[in-house]
Structure formats: C-alpha cells, structure tokens
Amino acid sequence: MRRFVIGDIHGCAKALRTIIEAIEPNSDDELIFVGDYIDRGPNSRDVINQVIALEDACRTVTLRGNHEIMMQGVALHGF
To answer: Would the pTM count as exceeding 0.85?
Structure first.
C-alpha cells in the first residue's frame, strides 16, 4: 500500500489533476487530504469534484482545513 498526503490545494484544480495523474492511484493506495481544498484558486468546485471522484479509485481520507472551517462558520452563523 502506498500512502500520499496532499494539502493546501486552494482551488487549483489543474495542479491537483497533475498530481493525481502522476500518482496513478489504485485501490490499494490511500490518499490523505489535509484540508484547504477551496478558496484563492480559480476552480474550487472542480477540486471538490476530483476529491469525491477519487473515492471510487482508492481509499481517501478528507480532513477540514482552516478555509473549510471558515466557510462553514459563514454558512452556519453568518460570520
């Protein structure tokens, strides 16, 4: 089993796609995402879609980063 840790993607979908293509994950691999999927970069939605799609290819662990926690606070509490 191979294990990869990926973090601070910040909406850079093209960079994430390049990393995933280089890794070529298989069902025995584990990808651990340590947060900050969104914000700053040009395509946060595509980043989220790529991470969700990886669940079919390999084991994934997705943790929230400070940007996700901040957005959750805005969505739930308005601040």
So the answer is: no
28-69 confidence digits (pLDDT tens): 999 999 988 887 888 999 999 999 999 999 999 999 877 777
Distance, in Å, from the CA atom of 33 to the CA atom of 28, rounded to the nearest integer, reads: 16
Q: What is the 3-state secondary structure (H, E, C) of the chain?
A: CCEEEECCCCCCHHHHHHHHHHHCCCCCCEEEECCCCCCCCCCHHHHHHHHHHHCCCCEEEECCCHHHHHHHHHHHHCC
What region does 58 belong to: left with phi over 0, alpha with psi -120 to 50, or beta?
Answer: beta
Rounded-to-integer distance, Cα 39 and Cα 30, Å: 25
